[in-house]
Amino acid sequence: MVSKSHSVKEIEIVRKGYESVSMKYRKEKDPDQDKIPLFRDFMDHENNNIILELGCGTGFPIGNALLDAGKNYTDIDLSEKQIQLARNEFPPWSNHFLVAEKLEFCRNQGSESFTGVVSMFSIRHLPRIHHAELYDEIYRILKPDGLLFIDCTIEPHDGATDDWTNMGTDLMYWSGFSKKWTMRTLEDLQFKLISTFEDIKTFLTKKRRHYYYF
Question: What is the DSSP string of 81-109?
Answer without folding.
Answer: HHHHHHHHHSGGGGGGEEE--HHHHHHTS
